[in-house]
Amino acid sequence: MLVMALLLAWSGLQAAENDLFRRVQEYTLDNGLKVLLLPEPRAPVVTLQVWYKVGSRNEVLGKTGLSHLTEHLMFRGTEKFGPKIFSRTVQKMGGNDNAFTSKDYTAYFENGPQTGLALWLEMEADRMRHLKVGEDLFATEKQVVIEERRLRTEDDPVGSLLEETVATAFKAHSYQWPIIGWMHDIAELQREDLLNHYRTFYQPNNATVVVVGDIEPQAVLKQVKATFGKIPPGPPRPEFRPFEPPQQGERRLTLTREAQLPFVVMAYHAPNLNDKDAFALEVLSLVLSQGKSSRLYHNLVYEQRLALSVGADYEMATANPGLFSVYGQPLPGKTVEELEKALEAQLARVRETPISDEELTKAKNQTEAAFVMAQDSLFYRGMLLGRYETIGGWRKLQEIVPGIRAVTKEDVQRVAQKYLVATNRTVGLLHPLKTDKPKGGMYKSHDQIR
Hints:
disordered C terminus, Cytochrome Bc1 Complex, Chain A, domain 1, five-stranded mixed β-sheet, 17 helices, 11 strands, 2 domains
């Protein structure tokens, strides 16, 4: 049964690779706009995605949060398509739309019937060029983002700890600040800051249009040229210069605030997909935390009954090197210091002894299966193409499966020894603040601060 399952997974993988890599059509318009088209005629639906090479890493201290705020305001209308018209138009045609901002990019998308594509292209091209934001609208949306930050971070102890840990881990690189921005920076942003950001980065020569679904590529290319092709190229994209020097000793921070339980996170500097070690680190993250049979869960939650939750996180698909993190929340009655020692013991075990053949095979199968099955979604195919093109080129997708397959037990041990060491880590500890306030008092105190 196992052999048959692996053969089926392998054949499915080959089919997915053929669909994704061999049928993508790539074009670059005269204004610098990159266009990626992938026909998939199995149903009369499409996903249209517009990816801009701008995220929180492209901001500067004092003006953090601009990329995320711009994303919000891109839905507030143009002269041609006024406030709330954009999403309503998509929905009336049976589609849905949204957007997201990351450290490395900002992306907008519409999913729905193929018949809506021509209009959606026109709408996206219009707001690339003609965003209309008055002072009142800017002030209103800025307040929305302030409240979003207050809800997701200011009032979330674990979220605050993770944010502080990342800020401590990075000293020179702009990955140090949160995507949503620092609260003070958001509050001080001016409309002119937004317009300068928009004019600098929202240009065809800094964007990629991705269309996946029931399309005839040449017809769609003609539509893209008729809409986006009319926009003149902007100035050259500002050169990205920040560089994070090697860490030369452990960094630690303690956050003391009202919380139900303590928390610990250990973050290690790690390479991105441009380094061959990324594949071994991806396998290691799965060995440590994928499922209830993973090392961290089995040992610390199930056997030792030390933790309420544990995990590991590694994101290799980034424009610049990032972090490999392990984290956990101790059970009531257990201390965060006990859990930190237990997490380090699990990492030491990987550094000292190679993982088993079974663990290696399982992690590889999990990675390949997730990569293949996710491609059944047209939207996710577009996401893969847009994301990888934005951070370094969509053809890097071709390296993922071969790279994972080539990982050995010795590779996993080697990267653990190289990166998961004390001199390369930042440890963040959350210590709950004891309080006699009644339940809900934390939120009342924040109201008083406001």
